[in-house]
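Hi, here's the filled form for the chain we discussed.

Project: internal
Contact: R.S.
Residues: 83
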Amino acid sequence: MSLLKTSKVSYFEEKNMTDFLERYEDFCDDYELNQINRFRKLSRYCDKIIDDNIKTKIEYIDFNWQELKKTMKKKYKKDDIDQ
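And the returned structure, exactly as it came back:
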C-alpha cells in the first residue's frame, strides 16, 4: 500500500450517493481493502445518523456490499443528481 495515494472520498451527508459510492469504492480499491474493512471504514465517511442507519441494514450485517449499495441509493435517491 502506497503512502502517496490520496483519498478523494467525500463525506456523505444525504446528497449525491452515487458519486459518494463511486469515490468510496475507488478508495477501497486503491488501498486494497478487504470486504470487512470496506464496511468498517464506511462509517468514517458518513454523517453519524446515516452511519447508525446503515449499520441496522441486513446488507451491512451480512457484509453484502452490492445489496447495501442498492439500498443506500434507493434511500437517498431524491438528493442524488446521478439517479
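Let me know if anything looks off before we file it.
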